[in-house]
Design brief:
With 191 residues, the protein is mostly helical. It is 71% helix and 4% strand. Helix 1 runs antiparallel to helix 2. The relative contact order is 0.13.
């Protein structure tokens, strides 16, 4: 159990904590400024999510830099990413901040690409993250943060960044998924 794997496990452990702050009503007061309102629960959940999302690149960087890449890390890192994103998306649907169909498309793509990665591993190869996959991750994280923070700071200029980022995230998620399957079609057995 090296440092990179410990960071990945920390990310997994933060998932239920984020969900508790999003889904349990602690009856905390709202933070209000002008016509902008947000619960303290959401602020805490957003901060924890940002910390968890930040560890995504950190664990991989540490593993590669120190040459401590392990099979456990290769398994846990993408799992941690999927758990984090899926849990928060489902929570946002429950909170009526994200359309269920959007969450389903994003989560389905994650499972499909994870399945393709598993096929690649069984064939003895590793599917590296594509540039579209990296863009997808960055846009999904940006979308989630904007939804968690009730469109802060764009709320003050009446710009629907949270809605636009949701649509962009779905579009890039679908495109990046198609890109993975097209570039790796040789892994899909056709009989």
């Amino acid at each position: 159990m090296n440092l990179a794997n410990k960071i990945t496990i920390l990310r997994i452990c933060l998932v239920p904590i984020i969900m508790v702050f999003l889904l349990v009503n602690f009856n905390l007061p709202h933070f209000a400024f002008s016509d902008y309102q947000i619960t303290y629960n959401q602020i805490i959940a957003a901060i924890i999510f940002i910390v968890a999302a930040s560890t995504d690149g950190l664990d991989g960087y540490i593993a590669r830099k120190n040459k401590i890449v392990t099979n456990l890390g290769k398994l846990l890192d993408p799992l941690a990413d999927k758990l984090l994103v899926a849990a928060v998306l489902i929570s946002l649907v429950q909170m009526d901040k994200l359309a269920a169909w959007m969450a389903i498309i994003i989560i389905s793509r994650e499972f499909a690409v994870t399945g393709l990665r598993q096929i690649a591993l069984l064939e003895g190869s590793v599917m590296a993250a594509s540039k579209w996959g990296k863009w997808k991750t960055a846009i999904q994280i940006t979308m989630i943060i904007s939804l968690l923070l009730n469109n802060f700071p764009f709320h003050f200029i009446d710009f629907p960044f949270d809605i636009i980022s949701s649509w962009v995230a779905v579009a890039i998620t679908v495109y990046s998924g198609i890109d993975y399957f097209v570039k790796n079609k040789h892994l899909i057995p056709v009989q």
